[in-house]
Protein 1
Amino acid sequence: MAAEYTAYGPNGRPNQTAPFNAYQILQKARKNGRFTGLDFIRNLTTEFMELHGDRRFADDPAIVGGVARLLGMPVTVIAHEKGGDLNDKARRNFGSAHPEGYRKALRLMKQAEKFHRPVLCIVDTAGAFCGIGAEARGEGSAIAENLMEMMTLKTPILSLFIGEGGSGGALGLAVADTVWMLENSVYSVISPEGCASILWKDASKVKEACECLHMTPSDLLKLGVIERIIPEPEDRGELYSLLREAISEEFYKLNALPLEDLCRNRYQRFRKLGVYGE
Amino acid sequence: MLRKSNFKKSRNQLEGFSPNLHTDKPYVPQELCTSCPSCKAMLFQSDLEENNAVCPKCGHHFRLSARQRIGLICDENTYEAWDENLTPKDPLSFPGYGAKLKASRFRSREVEGVLTGKAAIGGVPCAVFAMDAGFMMGSMGSVVGEKITRLFERAAAENLPVVGFTVSGGARMQEGILSLMQMAKTSGAVKLHSDKGLLYITVLTDPTTGGVTASFAMEGDIILSEPGALIAFAGPRVIEQTMRQKLPKGFQTAEFLLEKGFVDAVVPRKELKETIGRLLRLHCGEV
């Protein structure tokens, strides 16, 4: 079904497009008018029903989630949502979630585990929200809990990066069996602006920082942090249909594994990451 | 308006080293006298040392190095180091990282930012880790992540509880995405250990921030903290800069987290060993 599709991964993308440098990819990933998490949910799935709230404090609109059908298969989808127009963006904090957003995500994942649905996480955030309320309600604690619980969640998890993947805020939805990135998306430990201001005390040296951080999909594939790079055809419809097929194929594959193997593989996936001398 | 402060060079509080780090007794100045940064009282060095680096006047807790911490908490001559041979590399050829590693190694006399091993506390055998603020502000790179992961895996295999002291500026930027991955890796190991029904006590010490707060620091069954410690996900400077919000006094201190329900207890340094020993005996002692 997705025969031509596998030609793009897992060994890298074909040389169809000229390689962009990291800064250009960053600009594309942040471009105004780029698709958001909800666009993906609406176009990839059918019968989407949004489920709100973390049952503890509030509903964080920076992360949306719910149940839907992906080519017939019931799935749980969770996505960072940066928002459409300016008011919507402000309401959603430009996709930077508070602790309640991560707690909602975990609640929906536990629900998915209970009903044996695979989880699709769509990541697009500059980072977790940074502010007084977020700190007071335990941003660090909420993300830590997600990392821990996702590692042993007894149902397949696939994370797809569609734009920015900023630090712990992205990782909070990316402890997955397999992580894919669109070709114009980035994933890094710190924003290039933050890196530049620490390193050179000059936030304008963003281009240099982008290269240093190795944040592009091809760099991350080499480091073993992601499994697949998804090319972005001009026609968005084509992108969605390719993704629909590929994701459902992956879910079938992961669903076929015994749960212990699934969890062990996920643990090993992260266990092997890191470079040190011995 | 022209002010003197306009010409002041900004300094990253977390990256900055205090001058006393150059000696083998980090954080406690070697001079005869030192002034307490909190109450400004002049203290004799010997008094301070006798008092476990806590100001006798106001109770301000000076930072301790990892070795001092282990010496203070573990029963005498019980500490046995694990995985000492892991050394950091520069996988991304990040500008200035090699030199920074060298300087940190020289200053802290440690190979990396965390010590791990086995010891006894109050007579109960346990696995311990202590992070070192003297080594690149205790930031978590591949070695720190790997040592913590191995500690939890080995503790799970040997049925040992884990006691850990965190001090960290967060994930180590110079190792890029690989340091972010250590957050997931260590969390997985904590979970593995936890699922075996074993106890994990974390003690958050000043400062614990960023990627360490958002991973193994906050995953303890019991979370203790030292008085006045800064505990944050995003540090106060970052919040003030990005939000242009002035932070209330006492924000992100151990006491603040206690009030908000994220810390089980704030324990003064002189009671720490006894408290940890009691908790260990309650969980692992003979019935």
Protein 2
Amino acid sequence: MENTAFGIEYRPRTGSEAMCEALLDEGVEFLFGYPGGAIMPFYDALVDYPLKHVLVRHEQAAAHAADGYARATGKVGVCVATSGPGATNLVTGLATAYMDSVPLVAITGQVGRAAMGKDAFQETNVTGMTLPVTKHSFLVEEPEELYPTMRRAFAIARSGRPGPVLVDVPKDVQFAAVSGNGYRQLREAPPPIPAPALEAAARLIERARRPIILAGHGVTLSGAELELRMLAERCGIPVSTTLLGISCFPDDHPLNIGMPGMHGAASVNRAIDRSDLLIAVGMRFDDRITGNPEKFAPNAKVIHIDVDPSEMGKVVRPTVGIVADAKLALGGVLNHLRKSPECGAWREELAVDQAPERRKEAEARGRFGPVRIMEAIREATGGEVRLVTDVGQHQMWAARHFRYTRPNSHITSGGLGTMGFALPAAMGVALACPEESVWVVAGDGGIQMNIQELATIRDLGLNIKVAVINNGYLGMVRQWQQFFHNRRYSETPITGPDYETLAAAYGLTGRTVREGDDVERVVRWAEEREGFTILDFHIDPEQNVYPMIPSGMSVAEMIEEDDA
Amino acid sequence: MPSALEIRLCGGLLALNRLSMTLQNKRMPVEGLTLARNGAEVRVTVVLDCEGETARRYAALLSGLEDVSEAGVVADLEEVALVRADGRCEAVSGSPEYVERWLAENEVEDAVRLGPVARPGKGAC
């Protein structure tokens, strides 16, 4: 069409262009994706916009990379895939983000509207199949709805309890001409926190003699690290961080007592058992923490702070429930505190119980194995690192034995426990924080699940370091087989490539590290060299993670190293 | 003691899919589910085999869904039965207990029960 008054060619905006404009308007910098037939109009438009696209080698990696980016920045991560297998390959990544409350927007192409419902080539009902693992999903059937839907998707992803949102766009809708935007506002802001709840929480804290703060991912999500520290220090309350809460409170702080739960510190689990008040902040009493909820913290009153109202009483019935953002809630509680609890004796009791564990950890640092590797990474980086871990034994060793001193420096798949998460997630972290040191700690099982991303890492020149904790087993499953299946190691021995050779094939660098090698030197070498490096640590094949509370059991059934 | 929720939905079939998926996904103890509408709004009444406190938590969870405009526990339920008796079609309405009693006390050839649903203007929403 030509505008005859000014002689300017006028081209109506397409759906794809509206999508790109919405992404720009949301402040998106990076997209992680993989093109295909049904998303081609979007990829065609993308060329004309200042959006940086990262071409992954598998769509699952796109979702994990966007997830890592979101966790590192607090912004919404974006991933893109085509219809059919492209969309289904995103599902694991969406479920991972959903379980850990990570804000993502996933854009998928869909077959044209006329072909939908007719079993067309690469057609899947991705909105249907992602219903249980997304906060919301849209199938955009009208071009005019594209821009407002994209904006709304971002608002939903980041509001309240964050989570992934899927936007499925038929190919002809991406092609179609659109006008206007008609952006609709989301719901109103949440109401203020009722003062009586804050007052009741403050009184419980003042009267407590054996209190513990359980700090979860919600502290990081809401940026409440300072308020958490103020509450802990003002009241002298010990802090235990959940797997996803790790690094929201410094590990070297004298009030940090460590991680609770199935593989948490035995002293922490015993402390929870004896506690008279749990202040649970931004955590959801996952079964990996409570074990048998009937026997969990039997002597404790509970203050539960969570932004999601449906978490109240889901597993543990709170004495006081505060439905609010952790930062606001902790600030409110601090304002209502009139005095600090008398819990000096409690801290001394905990210190006595922790002493043997700390001695054992110090001894382990002197032996070749995962604890020493964690310490070597910490020393080489000076603690200035984002550690991205996969899922399995190494994840627990990294959680328990790496000392995190910077907020949001520990990134892992907690709720879903997705093997293969770490390498692609680290790509998102490295792009989000290009000046920071990024280390992946993974097992030899999980690293192979998305190993194809070495090509993406090479293309982007990402400065990621990988420590493979290689025991030749799917180690955590093997450990369970040892404890609960009479050492019948069914399908857990696993082989892998020579990572030095594999890295070389991708144009990257790797080293194999065995007992007797200088762990500290090789880790320092990796840290100091520019570019990707993979270190393959061959550790004792049957080293276990201790302690362990068997699934569904209580602290009374905890297996400690000396009992095994 | 069963509890009932009224959920008001906007968003058509996908909203209904999401709701039923959430009921199943969160293993809510659903004893009964009735759909009704007021204009474009779909009203769903769900009878749950759980105490009121648990039902309130489920209502909070459901109210977080984007397609749900309102969700809450309801105290008053209404049921309608379309009854065929003596060759004629009639409607019987009242509380679920009343309709149950009426059907037991009267000879009917066939009955279609619509409900229970939240009583208009007296539900939680």
